[in-house]
Specification:
The chain is an all-alpha fold. The protein contains nine helices and no strands. 72% of the residues lie in helices and 0% in strands.
């Protein structure tokens, strides 16, 4: 019980405070890189996933939300709406890491697939409300157009549009995030250990 409670607690120290802007910067650069090169990926969740792995679901969620707000204010206003999806990605990443989905490559791939499904479930309703079911990614929207032309249900078309980009994106992002995490010194990782003295955000 104590272990589960510590999952939703944050140790408010210099390391935790520094993690959020670092994760936001990683997300911001990744998204700009993907959009500039028109990649079939978003690359805007590497920092969020990394923060979830290292700092837990709360820090992961905060990193994702703040990233979307900043990107929405500076580059693409629509990005702020998807802060909800980024919160879900951060929470899912923290939970999966907490329950042992780390270390082995096959676990990292499953980790990425699960995060992709969580992200898609949250994003598809937003895509439908704001963009008629499309994602804005040229590769995913090509799949949407094809399915729509063949009279496939718009919600299913939207989900396939989203997951066709989200799955490879979150798998790649998870692998990169775990690669960075794996080279961190243990002394740094222990700064985020919530099993001892913690401060809640309640």
């Amino acid at each position: 019980m104590k272990k589960n409670r510590s999952l939703w607690m944050v140790k408010l120290n210099t390391a935790s405070i520094a993690l959020i802007p670092a994760a936001v910067a990683i997300n911001y650069i990744g998204k700009l890189f993907a959009e500039t090169l028109k990649l079939p990926l978003w690359l805007d969740s590497i920092g969020t996933i990394f923060a979830g792995i290292l700092g837990g679901p709360i820090l992961g969620a905060l990193s994702g939300l703040i990233n979307n707000v900043i990107y929405g204010l500076t580059v693409s206003p629509a990005s702020a709406v998807y802060g909800i999806a980024s919160i879900a990605i951060g929470v899912a990443s923290g939970l999966l890491a907490y329950y042992g989905m780390v270390g082995k490559l096959w676990k990292v791939i499953i980790f990425g697939v699960i995060v992709a499904f969580v992200s898609s479930i949250v994003s598809v309703p937003l895509n439908y409300i704001y963009y008629g079911g499309q994602t804005g990614n040229v590769w995913g929207d090509a799949a949407f157009a094809f399915l729509n032309a063949h009279h496939v249900n718009i919600i299913l078309s939207s989900f396939i549009d989203n997951i066709s980009v989200d799955a490879p994106d979150k798998i790649v992002s998870s692998i990169v995030a775990f690669a960075v995490f794996s080279v961190l010194p243990k002394r740094l990782i222990t700064l985020f250990d919530n099993s001892q003295e913690t401060t809640t955000l309640d």
